Known about the structure:
Rossmann fold; 39 strands; eight-stranded mixed β-sheet
Amino acid sequence: MAIERVALIFDNKARPETTGVYCRPALGSLVEVEHFLPTELSRIPREGFDLYLRIDDGLDYTLPADLHPCAWWAIDTHLDFESCLAKAGDKRFDICFIGNLFPGERGDLVRLIQSRYSNCFVGQRYFEQMAETYSASRIVFNRSIRNDINMRVFEAVACGSLLLTNDLSDNGQAGLFQDSVHLATYRDAEELLDKTAYYLAHEDVRERIAAVGREEVLAKHTYRHRMERLLAEVEMQIAVGSCIQGSGVANEERRPRDENRQASNPSTVQRYNSSTHRDHAYFEFSRPELVALVPEAARRVLDIGCGAGRVGAAIKARQQAEVVGIELDAQAAAEAQDRLDRVLVGNIEQMELDLPPQSFDAILCGDVLEHLSDPASVLRRARQWVKPDGRLIASIPNIRHQSVLRALLDGNWTYEPAGLLDRDHLRFFTRREVEKLFYRSGFSIHEIHAVPGPGYDEWVDRGRPNEVKVGRLHIGGMSDTEAEEFYAYQYLLSALPAALPEHGLTSIVIVTHNQVAYTRQCVDNIRERTDELYELVFVDNASTDGTVEYLRSLEGAKVLTNADNRGFPAAVNQGIRVATGKQILLLNNDCIVTTAWLRRLLRALEIDSRIGLVGPCSNNVSGSQQVTVRYEELESLDGFAWDWGKKHDQIIADTDRLVGFCLVIRRELIDKMGALDERFGMGCFEDDDYCLRALRAGYRVVIARDAFVHHFGGRTFVGSGVSFADLMQRNQQLFREKLNQMAIESGRNGNAARPDEPREQVSHGSRKHDFHPAHQGGLLLSRSQIRLSLCLIMRDNSGTIVQCLESIRPWVDEMVCVDTGSQDETPRIAERLGARLHYFPWCDSFSAARNESFRHARGHWIFWMDSDDTIDRENGHKLRQLAYAETDPAVLAYSMKVHCPSPGKNGDTEVTVVDQIKLVRNLPELRWDRRIHEQIIPAIRRAGGEIAFTNVYLVHSGADRSPEGRRSKLERDLRLLNLELQEYPDHPFTLFNLGMTYLDAGDYQRATVYLNRSIERSGESESHLRKAYAMLVSSHAQLRHCQIADEIGQQGLRLFPRDAELRFREAALLHDFGRLAEAAESYRKILETDEEPHFASVERGIKGYLTRHNLAVIYADMGDLASAEQQWRLALAEMPSFEPAKQGLHDIVRESAAATCAVSLSACVTNRISLTGSPRLSGL
Length: 1180
């Protein structure tokens, strides 16, 4: 009987990458296939199928007896062998092992390898990451636990690496693979070490075996081969009247096993007969990925939601451990009793448990938290039970997965028996919400892994683009890390109990005057987002809109009321007098607080006992607390604040002014110098005054950079009818008078600074105001004039630093120089020229050093340059005009041109022009990334800002072009880029820079490899993509692969049809092909086409004299001497010193006879200009 139609039965909800996902398309290429879930057994048609095939998915169930003929495919893996070939890439590890280190010989051998070889990878990887790690290893180690052929044999060999495995020739290996032909084997530890050393030393032998092995797997051991074998076996059994129930292969001993799977014998599996609504299979997962996260040293383990005890049983099989389970389902708990040491039955949220504090080494919550009404409460209880150095391990489904989004776009939110929309899920989480949950519950996440789901492989194959396309929805402008979240099915994480300092009670003082809706919103968010101990103190200034009634309804709040509007300072002082907290927090009623806001503010306060005042960052304040935000709706506020806090974790910045919209005051400070000055009436400048008083009293005033509070701003003033302008003018005058009085008092005490003495800088933060001595005595308040800061990093640049700083000094308000380890006079020269000097140890990262310089800048704008750059007077003046002009707030940076001169081939000077972002707003979120050829564009994009292009230019001319200097730079660049590649595997910009570096070094073959990989992984909006195409064309042209170069150039031009460099290279290739008319047309397009502004790195004159010269050469080849003469004259009008054009024009004018002209012009043809350089693209 020929099998034509198969019912394929497996679960892909809880583990979407299970084997059935791969078997299905392989089987579908052979026969007609329909997929059913184990929960759908009752509705599978009993007729119409030639075979009912169950694929092992880790669940224990039996097929109904009336489903026949039937077969069971008892193998589980996660890799599609047909795609493994594509994973083979550069080798980063000498040897790797992926899997569980069970006690015994395997663990001993792995530790032996690690003691001999430092460049090893040992750990867990799942799905495609597993394949990538195998491919990146020279040798893959294997030691089968059961002395059978496990899946690692096939997976490693298929990934193009040499497998070194224990000898399994007696267990079927010899029938599949030959030792020293397809793989290598060892019999004991001594032979393992000998063979490891031999194969690492003999790359040719190692790679030959790996290649032959890979071919063998791909030729004989893909899923299609397995399905063909299975169908043949079943057809044979049907022919003799049998019903198959087994592995689907003739020799049971030969079938590869997944050693993490504890598959039950089908004949002993009990039928589902539970009275609950859950299919019994739901509780039967062994979850090896969770087991892998449990420390092998753990001796007491608590499994919350233990199901039938499969996970605990796997832990006990691996190590000596007592496992306690908690399970809601009584039937599953009864089965768990046979596998675990103790099982508690009930609802974890309602149970009174007698578990001793700090009694467990590890606690598991595998797919549990999403089923709870208050998961944070359960986690806080778990924190009491786990030891201080213990682990809490969890798996949580990701509701951001693209399949859920796709369903929503189609108007669906359909619950399922299991999966992302499990019908019992009460809570839904994204990665960000997972992080917030654990943070608020008192845990610090040690590691978190995304488990790939449907669509992940295709996204990786597309080069991990930083955009997501789901149906009709296209989401861009994100990092590839964020894009990955749309393809993560769930998250696996391991967390440690975090240290939680006791901050004591915080009194939150809120002044109100009407605007009850804002007050209600403020209070609701405080209660929702605050985990620390606090009390609410309200002082109402004669509200008439129901505010007082609302405040009095708040349980536990202290409410003071005034019959008239006493103003902000007086009301605050009333609140402070009744507050009982260890610290006071002033909060405007038009604020919305965010997750972790108070913890971060209090943590900053406790860093130093001299810190008296702390304020957060915000969207709507003045001064250096203001940051650019990218949320447009309040629904996105908390997510933005969380990401902001992670990026600026535990960073504080000293300042001389905090805005009082949200201000933490140390109680000791109030006791020492009193409360706010009530002379400021309704408010404004009372916060400036208080900060200045605190500074004079010896306290620090700081911004907690990781804390963020949203501020609507001015709501009370809007509703009060008070003239804000008049109030500002009056209070500013009062503030000036107080300053003058302070100066007089200081003078009496002998502390007044003389006008000619430099004033001590109190803060490294951006100042809003400066204080200057006035002619009549006292101090004068004025706006800060530090508008433009220079930021520069340097090291042993004494030969260029003087010219650099002297050229820029007249145009900036301050010079910030960061020295990374000079041994010469560079730091002293910079200081002598007026720079503020800071030291920063070199850490193999240009971006880290540059960010350090940015950290010290005080201007509104930052201009950065290299220590061998110079700027002339005209461009310096333009730079200063940009910094002082009124600018569109959306513009966060300006691009300028860097002229890079170098010796030309004709004795002249060639100049390459590179577009770089040089002028940047001084915002904390605008910082550099990458070790070398550092980028800032991603930060600008994340902030939602725009970049404006300018014609301002500077000259980069101090590069060391000696052979030794070039060699040293090449070695440094490659070292840093390879470090970066390890940190960001296959990142398109890192690959681009590697390709560019090898092209500069003349290694064109390697350049093509990295540039190809960069292009494959780059999105069309990437700023380096067009340059990558141009350099790839150049590399192939240098290798004389002219046809390939032309094809690549055409690909680039289809994306960037107006790109001058790609068009120039097209014309040069057409000239080489002898297609002169087409070449001339391409050159003319360059001259006639205006390019849109973009980041470029091209030789000066590509849109002018260089193109005109090459066009003249073509005209001369075509015999059109008049046109040739015209183009050469135009080229010389633009660049009079351009020798090739001079020579061409001279030959035409001198020789009038056609024959003579032809002879002389034949020499001119060899002078056609080509673009072979690939100057650095930095600052992108």
